[in-house]
């Protein structure tokens, strides 16, 4: 009897260990999901795939600060990884697959890079978290430029060389120049820069003749009279007081309107719990004063989407971009 009792005790103890181990494994597999609570371990890193001072950098830093404000104890460091028109930063982010302590402020390059460059990723390799809004661009020239409309630029390109600066070969500005060429028969001589800040400096320094830049990047120069806006590549005129008098390209006979989205992605392969954590935090951010301030100060068109809805938007936008580029 004593021997049987010892054997029974051993079996029960072994069973408890097995069940405990199974429970721990299940909890690890679904950390932060299926009823578990996920929290970032230590500081989170916001990887910006462009240089400091441009639209993507402003987006990343604003979202980071906003998330910190709505999630107690959250700390996010911003890290710029520049090169390859965004490819270096996105490729580095790809290496963080499965790590929920990394975020990236995404934009049109997420879709355009895989269509134009040999990279190891497309949008399906990441986890879409939030779309903040739409960021249309303005065609801008130095204040002393003889051009007063986008139609003037198109006509000039048909009879001579027009040097257009772009922020990376896969950015929104390159897309709108391509769409303008397709719609009008124009031809632009492009010069790529690594960030909107570098592009702006080149325009102010008369190294290029025209650029397509986001309103938030150029509004101060427009107010100061250093630059002038020829048209907006948007569906309708902006309602912001500083931009409401800028006609759309469509008003000038150029049927081009294409928005750069501003959003947030996490690495692919993260747990359901981590995905839910970042989506919930992003929903709180969108409702915050910091989000409203970011949207207004950067002249975005607010249009928030989260999770699956953002994923569907990316697919639709990707298909549209493929069609625009004949792919």
Automatic annotation (TrEMBL):
<protein>
    <submittedName>
        <fullName>Putative tricarboxylic transport membrane protein</fullName>
    </submittedName>
</protein>
<dbReference type="InterPro" id="IPR005064">
    <property type="entry name" value="BUG"/>
</dbReference>
<comment type="similarity">
    <text>Belongs to the UPF0065 (bug) family.</text>
</comment>
<dbReference type="InterPro" id="IPR042100">
    <property type="entry name" value="Bug_dom1"/>
</dbReference>
<feature type="signal peptide">
    <location>
        <begin position="1"/>
        <end position="21"/>
    </location>
</feature>
<keyword id="KW-0732">Signal</keyword>
<dbReference type="Pfam" id="PF03401">
    <property type="entry name" value="TctC"/>
</dbReference>
